[in-house]
Design goal:
heterodimer; A: about 325 residues; mainly alpha; about 0% strand; B: about 140 residues; 5 helices; about 65% helix; rod-shaped
Chain lengths: ~325, ~140
Amino acid sequence: MSSSLLHPPSYLPPAVALRHSQQAPSILGKTTGAISTSLFHSLLSAPETPELWITYENLLLSCLRTGDDESAHQCLGRLVNRFGDDNERIMALKGLIREAGASDAATLDAILKEYEEILRDNPTNIPILKRRVALLRSTGRISESVSTLISLLDITPTDAEAWAELADLYFSHGLYSQAIYALEEVLVLQPNAWNIHARLGEILFVAAKSSDHLGQFSEALKRFSRSIELCDDYLRGYYGLKLASLPGHHQGAPSSRTGSDGFAVPDLATLSKLDEMATEKLAEIVRRSSAGEKGWQGYDEAEIKAARELLESVSGGAVVR
Amino acid sequence: MTWISKFTTALGLLLLADACYSAYEHSVLQTHRAASLSSLTTSHSGATTTLPIDITIETIIATFIVCLGMVLSTSKLRPIQWRVWAGKIEREGEAGFLSSSGEVEKDYVGNPFQLLESRPGFVDIRKQRKEFAVWAKGQ
């Protein structure tokens, strides 16, 4: 997890977002925001870097999150000065600011109508389509947001972010098989994404638990294993591997039966070996990370805590420091 | 570039400049001597002294010192295998990608697939604002 302003802030913990938005006045004050187009001035002043604009955009998002609307408007002003009003991303950011400032349903409806108007002029305005999906989802109109998202995916079938959003939408409403399909599409586009393999494993696990479909436990095991293959010492992968390899989940499956992809349901010896390896690895990660060892501090605190609780619950009270 | 590599490179360049200037001085001396000799005798002396060996040694040593300085200033090598690199990101975070001056390297982006889970194009800003307000109250 990084704390730099060059990375999108939606994954940042609230404290870091607050710190970024508090830096806003100093960052805005440092550069004047005046972009000169004459050759002479551009020779004298520092060259504009792409990082500057990314910084403005991420600062805008952090400020909106923490409620600092004044700085957010200033950031937007500078972006509009540079890129103009017709840029698709700028239009989406403007819509975002208005959404953030909206206080009642009538304003949100007005914003939605504006999005639709923009889309009537340009039906392939991807950032505005995404904002429309997000706003529909936020106001609770799920079926409309799903249909908008599907039409977006008809326009650009290679947008992995949109497929991931579709998977999340389906999953949050219990439609597991559709969510699994959407995440598999994400993996077609980004086959090396270890965190998406782990996410798919998690969804398969939840689906298998709710429907008692035994083959899905093996699928989940396969996905978690792949995520560990792609990333050494992946805490989330080992956690899922440990949960999915509990023998209780694979009982009742005849050993000759194969899963949906021809993946044989593993036998008990393999399962116990996997379980052992996962336990050992989790213990090592928890131990080294809590001991403050250099080179093991990149893990998320909450994940380490969850791993420790899992180990303690399984080992029956033997404390892992 | 750390200070020791800068210092070494500068020292090497200084030595190189000194060697080059000495060689230039030598060649000027040669032509001057040849010119003054030819005004006295009709035949050339024939034997021009070769470049003194210490200038040659100084040039070679200066080149080595410059190369050493440049090598000292390279950044740490990064892992090639995907899983080792991914593991480094997960395990060490940004602390594993510091440049020689102690700052996080500019092209470090963390987990590049994180955006598939945070999805910044679909951010629900009102929900984030509410959650932040709740967290701020709790502080």
